Amino acid sequence: MLSMSDPNFELPLTKNTIETAMAEGLHIGAQLHVSLGSLNAIDWSTGFSRPGVPMTRDTLMIWLSSGKPVTAVCVGQLWERGKLQLTDRVSQYIPEFAQGGKEAITIRQLLVHTGGFRAGASNWMREDWNITIARICKGAIEPGWVPGKKAGYHVAASWFILGELVRRIDGRPFEQYVREEIFLPLNMPDCWIGIPIEQYRGYGDRIGIMQNTEGANPKPHTWDALETATLCKPGANARGPAHQFVRFYQMLLNGGELDGTRILNSPTVDAMTARQRIGMFDHTFKHKMDWGYGFVVNNAMYDDPPGIVRYGYGPYASLRSFGHSGHQSSVAFADPENNLAAVIIFNGTPGELVHDRRIRATLKALYEDLDLVGQPL
Q1: Strands 340-346 and 29-36: what pairing?
Q2: Topology of domain 7-67+188-369, per CATH?
Q3: Is the N or C terminus of the chain more exposed, i.e. has fewer CB atoms within 10 Å?
């Protein structure tokens, strides 16, 4: 393992890869936080958080789907506290969910994406939480889908229902629960899933604006506007600085505890990050894919032909690696074999194929900088 005095721990290859891609117009800025073991850490930012505003370590960037495991851990807390069982039907807690063939869907099936109601909601509709939940509940299961027997990543709908499960069981709004049970205990004060309006305004230019970089000139997405950022979207609009987000993965690497604060018990962490859905074809990603409970585990063994598996952890990550990636822009993960936790957020969505090349090159460089290169998978 490298020490903090080793110049290679400054990640020269990684930084150069990110800077080169930025010069090519793939993003206008980036945040990076990497921790290796209990002592070593790199906290770095470059470029811009929005045109004309420098990216800093304290910029709040949107995580998109990289934030989904936070919602999963909220459910995991209720599970280990005996408030629910993963084999329970969702309709036990949300009776109106038992419509359209969805009555037998279990909480576990939501966490491993085998429920079969992918089209039930969008992450970016600007509407009241209760309206979204009611529409998902009224919706039908996809034709021919048998829950638990067919798999397909749910971008939004199942995450709203997981958030509603937390609300129904605990009593607090989901955005309040996640602040009080995850973010504040872990000393992640600038992390949110739905920022209160007054807080959003108070942050000012600290709110990064994700850019669409597919064209010749960057154009801002609408995801960071007040009207969207202040809504609670458990599957998409978590946000905060990378150096705070990485604490979530440091906690998981440490068996559910960080700096004397316990978020989960170690057996729960082990269960959630293990392979719970194995070898099933994912009808959203269009290839075989394993899942933990809300976590994407390393699926590199299915990358045949090379490039088919996107949103992975690079060529050198151990098979025990787990985390989640965000749409064309971010990755947050832990590699237990190497005691590594990392969050990388690019301010730019350049298209799926271009981003795939960008993140693969960046993660390859990261492991090479850290001298963690083994036999590529």
Answers
A1: antiparallel
A2: Beta-lactamase (3.40.710)
A3: N
Ramachandran category for residue 286: left, alpha or beta (phi over 0 → left; psi -120 to 50 → alpha) = left
Sequence ranges of the chain with CATH classification 3.40.710.10: 7-67+188-369
Would you say 248 and 182 are in contact if contact means Cβ atoms under 8 Å apart?
yes
Q: What span, in angstroms and rounded, lies between the C-alpha atoms of 301 and 14?
A: 24
Three-class DSSP category at 258: strand
pLDDT digits (tens, 9 = 90+) for 222-280: 999 999 999 999 999 999 999 999 999 999 999 999 999 999 999 999 999 999 999 99
In 3-state terms, what secondary structure has residue 131?
helix
What's the pLDDT score for residue 80?
98
CB 35, CB 43: distance < 8 Å? no
pLDDT score for 226: 96
Regions of the chain where pLDDT drops below 50: 376-377
Q: Buried b vs exposed e over 2-30: b needs ≥16 C-beta within 10 Å?
A: beeeeeebebebbbebbeebbeebbbbbb
Smallest CA-to-CA distance from 58 within 190, 212, 227 is with 190
pTM value > 0.70 = yes
Distances from the Cα of 101 to the Cα of 96, 98, 136, 202, angstroms: 12, 7, 12, 45
